[in-house]
Amino acid sequence: MKILDRYILTTYLRTFFSVFTILMLIFILQTVWLYIRELAGKDMDIVIIGKFLLYALPKLIPLVVPLTILLASIMVFGSFAENYEFAAMKSTGISLQRAMSGLSVFIVILGITTFFFANNAIPWAELNFYNLRRNIAKLKPSMAIAEGQFNPIESTPYNIKVRSKHGERDQFLNDVIIHVKGSKNENATTIISKEGELASEKDSNVLKLILTDGYYYSDVSPEKRKDREKKPFAKTKFETKIINIDLSELNNIDIDEKSQTDKYSMLNVSGLNESIDSLGEKAKRDYEIFAKNLHQRSSLLLPKKITTANNNVNPTDSTYLGNLLDIYNTKKKLQLIENTMRTLASPQQIINSKETNLKVQNEIYNRHIISLHEKFALGFACIILFFVGAPLGALIRKGGIGLPMVIAILLFLTYHFIGIFATNSAKKGGFNPVLAPWFSTLVMLPLGVFLTKRATADKGLFDFDSILDPLKKIFKIKEKNSHDYKFLNSQKNNELIDIINNYEALGHDETCRHEAYKVLISRGNDLDDIIEKGLIIKPDYKVSETLIRQSYNPHAKFAISLFIVGIALLVLHFVFKNNKLPSVATASIQLSIMSLILFIIYYLKSLKDLFSFYRFINKPRKKPALILVIIGFPLYFISHLLFKEKVKEDLKLNYLESLK
Question: What is the pTM of this model?
Fold first, then answer.
């Protein structure tokens, strides 16, 4: 390893581990704060709390490592640029890519390591963390009766709510409500009392409740159905009632017991692949069984004996083309309709009940697919974020914690929120579950390419002139000391041609030559007429002007019109839909789709004309960048104006170069 690579790597590693430690501490504190209610009041020793934090740490890695790479890259390379270390490297012929090459190897190794970590350590930690939380929740429920909310006691039928607690040991209770579940897991009994007391000790295996001045409500289940529809219950008033809840089995808990091991976040790649296959097969079987059941229920219960009101019609005639109901009399029509409605009601109920189950199954299936691809996407994200952070630091030329921290947090929040939105949408089936884990990384990929190219070319972060100049022309904002060419409007055609041919002798600049030509065109003269009157210009210019004025401009104008119409109709579709106008909303979305399809066609035609123009003038490098073409597709109302001004400027330059 060369001295330069070793210096860059050691500098980066120092910053990386420092940032990683700080961020990990922040996220650990956030985790403790998030689960403090589960830990408080359980009288647990330090070993259990240590296990809780140990199992929570690995699941923070997918958040901490990408943010650490991004922030460390911006800080290190920003410090190099700020201290002119990059300038010294470039003076010796070392480019940015060469400076990043040693770190790139480290980042690739780190990305591969994160995959194995996500495939082995995170499922192990999730398995232990999930089951540890379940076991902690069962510990000493007598200490977990929180005020103002129902507190279910695990492995018992009791659900207790108190308004307030007081006393030395919080043993006195006010306004106690207790729900006791029945055999069918319903709230069969309700006990309400004004006051209560926890008479047992905190460490006791029996939760003893002494209730005073209350009522006891119990549901009654009569044998007759009509009596059950009245929903009778028994009410009893009591002065004192004692309830003993046996906690001996509940408190005899192995804190390390693992009762659940098949959750999608607890599985590695092989386990997820196996689960995905089994879930897919199960879903296929469920759909087949469901379809078979519906098919069996779909036969209409026709009357056994058919009589018709029309003796001229034979019910068994297969060539009868009239209304089928006309062959029956009124009574049979009613019977047929009633039988059909009864037959359809049952499948409809089955479909409605099955729909919820199928949605849950599909969501579980999508979660497994997302979890599988998240393991691969994490390593790839580390590499992409490095190629975002390193050139970005070289461009902003600022090290330390201040500006790099702000930029890194903004970029990471963008990356993280895009990932959250894509993942949540994929869980419900609204987005491809395979693409969702990769989506935020793929969004960052063009940014990394763009920043690396600009940093390599030693350009600024943004070329504001290339953005501001077209905007100034669009809004006709004139700069100071700009020339006024209004005097050309008063000149005759031959005088304008003389200005074009002899601008230097007459004391004019090149822009004046172009403005004079624009005035001639505005007066209805075409290029051939102007050449006949004495304009000296290369013949090839006519072809380039034709490509723009007769091909590109009409196609671009038609494209922007279709784009505006399509977007307007799309907005109206949602307006009509919200106002319960389905027919108008359907027509609106259909017209919108047609307009947008035509827009795509004319957008591609305008791009073809544009590229043909730049090929003809032999300046392909001046054509719009690919990223602008891609961004310009959904934002055509902006890119159309930018393209329009760019074409005007390049046509002007071609005109000036064609003049002899």
Answer: 0.54
